[in-house]
Amino acid sequence: MQELIASIEKFSFDLEKDIEGQRGALLLPFHGMDKSGAAVCDFFVKGVCRKGPMCPFRHLSGEKTVVCKHWLRGLCKKGDQCEFLHEYDMGRMPECYFYSKFGECSNKDCPFLHIDPASKVKDCPWYDRGFCKHGPACKHRHTRRVMCTNYLVGFCPDGPKCKYVHPKADLVLCNTDHPKNTTVQQRLPATSLHCDLETIAKHQGLMFDHSRLSHLTVISMVQERIRKLQENVYGGLRPLEQVTCFKCGERGHYANKCNRSRLAFLMRK
């Protein structure tokens, strides 16, 4: 009722203007003083603060999502340069060491986060794509899902709301040129399953008709490649005119088809 009869929203006091303009705020006596209890500098957020490190207010740069554990004990010496948050927020507290290490914490009033280890396990990108060579020994989670046939064909009308899985093409690869302790992880670009099939067929040596390439996907191309290799088991062998038998030393047949004895090569010499 008071807001309807005598509203003061349109009025502003001189004190409010002084606080917003930081009038009367003195510079710090020396550099490196603790400003953890001070307010955030509004001018620094806008990029117009000219006081630099001597500003009595805190200069926060970037988004800080985790509370500084040293600041909680009053031992942080970095001040505004700390990459962690100097603010008590229960939702941004660091993870409890004892709960993450031993699976339990005896402190009933523990201020740190207790995160379930199972929730931190990520889904295996190889298993989600179809096959993981590590099997049950894989450190990532293997979750059985049903792929969306419409998405594999080319388009799913349900989009992100589809109850089936839309497989992704981005995979995490490890560079084998580096040692195991300095494994460099690389991520393939997330491309669509429909790509330049004619280019892939040219480089991979796939024996496809160009008329069929328009409706093929990467998965069907791999299946076709495996089928061709199974049908042409001896397709990669050299012609008999270029084959030399190591038993008799003559050309025109393989050693497993040679009718002469094993000493024929020595006797001919």
Automatic annotation (TrEMBL):
<comment type="similarity">
    <text>Belongs to the CPSF4/YTH1 family.</text>
</comment>
<feature type="domain" description="C3H1-type">
    <location>
        <begin position="90"/>
        <end position="117"/>
    </location>
</feature>
<feature type="domain" description="C3H1-type">
    <location>
        <begin position="118"/>
        <end position="142"/>
    </location>
</feature>
<comment type="function">
    <text>Component of the cleavage and polyadenylation specificity factor (CPSF) complex that play a key role in pre-mRNA 3'-end formation, recognizing the AAUAAA signal sequence and interacting with poly(A) polymerase and other factors to bring about cleavage and poly(A) addition. CPSF4 binds RNA polymers with a preference for poly(U).</text>
</comment>
<comment type="subunit">
    <text>Component of the cleavage and polyadenylation specificity factor (CPSF) complex, composed of cpsf1, cpsf2, cpsf3, cpsf4 and fip1l1.</text>
</comment>
<feature type="zinc finger region" description="C3H1-type">
    <location>
        <begin position="62"/>
        <end position="89"/>
    </location>
</feature>
<keyword id="KW-0862">Zinc</keyword>
<keyword id="KW-0677">Repeat</keyword>
<dbReference type="InterPro" id="IPR045348">
    <property type="entry name" value="CPSF4/Yth1"/>
</dbReference>
<dbReference type="Pfam" id="PF00098">
    <property type="entry name" value="zf-CCHC"/>
</dbReference>
<keyword id="KW-0479">Metal-binding</keyword>
<dbReference type="GO" id="GO:0008270">
    <property type="term" value="F:zinc ion binding"/>
</dbReference>
<feature type="zinc finger region" description="C3H1-type">
    <location>
        <begin position="143"/>
        <end position="169"/>
    </location>
</feature>
<feature type="domain" description="CCHC-type">
    <location>
        <begin position="245"/>
        <end position="258"/>
    </location>
</feature>
<dbReference type="InterPro" id="IPR041686">
    <property type="entry name" value="Znf-CCCH_3"/>
</dbReference>
<feature type="domain" description="C3H1-type">
    <location>
        <begin position="143"/>
        <end position="169"/>
    </location>
</feature>
<dbReference type="Pfam" id="PF00642">
    <property type="entry name" value="zf-CCCH"/>
</dbReference>
<dbReference type="InterPro" id="IPR036875">
    <property type="entry name" value="Znf_CCHC_sf"/>
</dbReference>
<feature type="zinc finger region" description="C3H1-type">
    <location>
        <begin position="35"/>
        <end position="59"/>
    </location>
</feature>
<dbReference type="GO" id="GO:0031124">
    <property type="term" value="P:mRNA 3'-end processing"/>
</dbReference>
<feature type="domain" description="C3H1-type">
    <location>
        <begin position="62"/>
        <end position="89"/>
    </location>
</feature>
<keyword id="KW-0539">Nucleus</keyword>
<keyword id="KW-0507">mRNA processing</keyword>
<feature type="zinc finger region" description="C3H1-type">
    <location>
        <begin position="118"/>
        <end position="142"/>
    </location>
</feature>
<dbReference type="InterPro" id="IPR036855">
    <property type="entry name" value="Znf_CCCH_sf"/>
</dbReference>
<dbReference type="InterPro" id="IPR000571">
    <property type="entry name" value="Znf_CCCH"/>
</dbReference>
<feature type="zinc finger region" description="C3H1-type">
    <location>
        <begin position="90"/>
        <end position="117"/>
    </location>
</feature>
<dbReference type="GO" id="GO:0003723">
    <property type="term" value="F:RNA binding"/>
</dbReference>
<protein>
    <recommendedName>
        <fullName>Cleavage and polyadenylation specificity factor subunit 4</fullName>
    </recommendedName>
</protein>
<dbReference type="InterPro" id="IPR001878">
    <property type="entry name" value="Znf_CCHC"/>
</dbReference>
<dbReference type="Pfam" id="PF15663">
    <property type="entry name" value="zf-CCCH_3"/>
</dbReference>
<dbReference type="GO" id="GO:0005847">
    <property type="term" value="C:mRNA cleavage and polyadenylation specificity factor complex"/>
</dbReference>
<keyword id="KW-0863">Zinc-finger</keyword>
<feature type="domain" description="C3H1-type">
    <location>
        <begin position="35"/>
        <end position="59"/>
    </location>
</feature>
<keyword id="KW-0694">RNA-binding</keyword>
